[in-house]
Amino acid sequence: MTTPTAKKAAAAGDYLDQRTNIAVAVKGFARKVFPDHWSFLLGEIALYSFIVLLVSGFFLTMFFVPSMSLVTYHGPIASMDGRLMSEAFASTLYTSYEVPGGLLMRQVHHWAALLFMASIVTHMMRVFFTGAFRKPRELNWMVGFLLMILGLLAGFTGYSLPDDVLSGNGLRITDGVVKSIPIIGSYMSYFIFGGEFPGEHIIPRLFSLHVMVVPALIISLIALHLLFVVLHKHTQYPGGGRTDKNVVGFPLFPVYVAKAGGFFFIVFGVLALMGGTMAINNVWNYGPYDPSPVSAGAQPDWYMLFLEGSLRLMPGQTEYVIAGYTLSLNILIPAVVVPGLLFTFLAVYPFVEARVTNDKREHHVLDRPRNVPTRTALGVAFLSAFIVLAVAGSNDLVATHFHMSLNSITWALRILLFVLPVVTFWITKRICLSLQRKDRELVLHGHESGNVYQFASGETIEVHTPLNEQERWLRVNYDAHAPLEIEPAEDSRGVRRKGYKADRRWQKLSRFFYEDRVEPVRPSELSDDHHEGGH
């Protein structure tokens, strides 16, 4: 027996299924299995914070005026009353003080943007260190990389919209960076700003990018990213019973849907709490944009600090005039070359690693970071350089808060930028190799039990406790890649082989990755150790 409502719902579902065959897709998707691990929530945080960004951003567009036309402000903020400002800045003040819930939505929007970028960066770190970018997920890594770039662009276009002193100075820096590009820089600046900086068009253009172009691209890439996750099946951490041919976890419906839905409201609640209790981007403290005042303590959001720090660390006496053109290395290197190197490293790394391993298999079980020491060390070195640049972006605050010399801090950070990545690379690689050797020892000899026995001969030994199957599987089920082997430089007839030099370069790079390695324990070694009384 069914109710009339249930009958109508069933009829509607049957009507739709007969014309779209959607039941097959829903049935297959509902049975999709997802592993259960806390680190997989990082991607969900990015998705949910983006949803909050869309909702709060829609609210803000109802009141923001993307215009640089000048008006005289008369409103509840006494310090701003009677001041000349752009309509963009005036509408930001109006939204914050006169629209019910306006300030809350502004702050929720800003905190959601910060969380969106933080979760993307942390999610990419998890993917990098565990090798989730390997075949067949190289393209999905590129999708995530593009999402990070678009997130940076969305953040930059967003906090530039209020047209206050802080955002105006950020645009001024952008103008300088664009003009530092040889030959085409000045033309690009004219194109972006519609004339000499600041012009009258930059805020409307940024608004169009921020509310239409960039969100549309992000939504498209998120859809593509999720499609790849479904097509490739989800990665999983190593463990007993987990192979490249299965997925151990929970089905999408009803378990995962219920957990994901609850987690969305947790993220939304935390962002609402932060927006209601933590003030951020109080533009009335800075005032409308004026190119003359630039105060200390003026930093962009955290994800752009590395670019600010790079500019602050670069010495200023590096301009050269060549054939009547000024080459501003003091801006070009820190703002174009350094970020270009960092982003290029992220973009091409999966393809470089695939080349130096010559591994063409599909991988669905993740790596333990200790089992790929060079990759882990490179990732830590990259992060150390990023952190140094981020600290440099706040060197004035460090100097004022800790009563230190600004010049001394700057020089220390300049040295650290070159020294710290090398040191962290070496230390991290040594730690990973040591952990691998410890795993090898545990597999061969087991855990120390603390039980000591003495034979009649007087000899004493400590009996070790063997590892269980799960512990042993975790420590032996990985590949220790060896450096590439290449064909000789000359063939059997003494003719020099074409492409040998390129192969030789890849071989050298492969040795850098895999010359130092610890082989996993083989069954024969474990059997020999048992026969010798190793346990």
From TrEMBL:
Designated name of the protein: Cytochrome bc1 complex cytochrome b subunit
Cytochrome b/b6 N-terminal region profile domain boundaries: 12-238
Reaction it catalyzes: a quinol + 2 Fe(III)-[cytochrome c](out) = a quinone + 2 Fe(II)-[cytochrome c](out) + 2 H(+)(out)
Cofactors named for this entry: heme
Pfam families: Cytochrom_B_N_2
Topology in membrane: Multi-pass membrane protein
PROSITE patterns for this protein: CYTB_CTER, CYTB_NTER
Domain Cytochrome b/b6 C-terminal region profile positions: 239-434
Transmembrane segments: 45-65, 108-129, 141-161, 207-231, 252-280, 331-352, 372-391, 411-428
Main location: membrane
EC number(s) reported in the record: 7.1.1.8
InterPro entries: Cyt_b/b6_C, Cyt_b/b6_N, Cytb/b6-like_sf, Di-haem_cyt_TM
Keyword line: Electron transport, Heme, Iron, Membrane, Metal-binding, Transmembrane, Transmembrane helix, Transport
Subcellular location per the Swiss-Prot or TrEMBL entry: Membrane
Broad enzyme group: translocase
